[in-house]
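hiii, so i know i said id send this last week but things got crazy w the move. better late than never?? heres the sequnce for the chain we talked about at the cafe, plus the structure i predicted for it. fair warning i was half asleep when i ran it
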Amino acid sequence: MKERRKWLRDTGILVIALIAIIGIAVAEQGRDDITTEIETVTGAEDGASETASPSEDRQCGEYRYKILTDDTAEVTAYEGSETTLFIPAYMEDKAVTVIGTAAFKENETVQRIYLPPGTLEIGEEAFAGCKELQDIYITETVERIGERAMAECPLLEEIVFPEAVSRIESMTCQGDTGLRQITIQPAVTQIAEDTFAGCDALSLVYGESGFAQGYAQENDFVYVDMERIREEGNLVW
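okay and structure toks below
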């Protein structure tokens, strides 16, 4: 009898030990599964961030745009037919900082364009070939205007280059254009040789710097001193 009780006791202890071992194994497996799942999700997120790049085009009303790496927006195209455009300062919730390459190229209806505050760059050929364009209001925040940005705009008579621009690029206003006068800010220190090639109507340069005056004299344009206009209240030719 004693031997039987001993055998039962030893067997019970063994069964309890086996149950404990199985429980531990199941718990460990559960933790491993959870860990694997977390690592998979985290890895997917990390992979997404590592491969993040400027997005594909999105739609916002009649505009197409894309998100840049600095989380701002670039306008890539306009699909409407308005004659006066106030380009939005935001696309969804992203601030517009760039007017993209050829974004409005050869638009057939727009006559006046107002750039949003905060715009930093106008891309190459952004407004080239806009046959009806008469006025473009460039915000003072713009730092760069690309080549041929306003080329082949026969009704565009005046351009005021913003204060932040230091170089006016090649063929910016080249070709079939009605451009008659430009305003060169003091920050401008370089103008590409063929910037105004074919602009036969261009005759007036408004400015308040030695560079602007020298550019006018070298190219046989009439120089208008903006500083003297402010001081004396009249045009000085």
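btw The radius of gyration is 34 Å. thought thatd interest u
miss u guys!!
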